[in-house]
Amino acid sequence: MPQLNPNPWFLIMLTTWLTFLFLIQPKLLSFTPSNPLPNKPTPTAKTTPWTWPWT
């Protein structure tokens, strides 16, 4: 069963993860968003109680 042989695929997976962690991720995290979110307060929702017809 060649699916159970981790010999060629484990090295590929490990290389891919290490490349992502040490090369791609720092480059992506260095970008700043061009349109930052404004710091405005969130509006509170005005709720009204439900009037039950049997009470």
Mean pLDDT, all residues: 82
Instruction: Indicate the low-confidence ranges by residue numbers.
Output: none
Give the overall silhouette.
Answer: elongated
Summed up, the helix count is 1
Major sheet description: none
Structural class: mainly alpha
- How large, in whole angstroms, is the Cα Rg? 27 Å
Report the end-to-end length measured between terminal Cα atoms. Answer: 69 Å
Which sequence of SSEs, written as H and E, runs from N to C?
H
Helical amount: 40-55%
* Fraction of residues in β-strands: under 5%
Number of strands: 0
Keywords: ATP synthesis, CF(0), Hydrogen ion transport, Ion transport, Membrane, Mitochondrion, Transmembrane, Transmembrane helix, Transport
Family: Belongs to the ATPase protein 8 family.
Main location: mitochondrion
Subcellular location: Mitochondrion membrane
Give a quick set of tags describing it.
55 residues, mainly alpha, elongated
Protein architecture, described:
Keywords: ATP synthesis, CF(0), Hydrogen ion transport, Ion transport, Membrane, Mitochondrion, Transmembrane, Transmembrane helix, Transport. It is found in: Mitochondrion membrane. Belongs to the ATPase protein 8 family. This is ATP synthase complex subunit 8. InterPro entries: ATP8_metazoa, ATPase_protein_8. This protein is an all-alpha fold and 55 residues long. It has a domain at 1-30. 42% of the residues lie in helices and 0% in strands. It contains 1 helix and no strands. The protein has one helix at residues 7-29. The longest helix is centred in the first third of the chain and has 23 residues, at 7-29. It is elongated, with a radius of gyration of 27 Å. The mean pLDDT is 82.
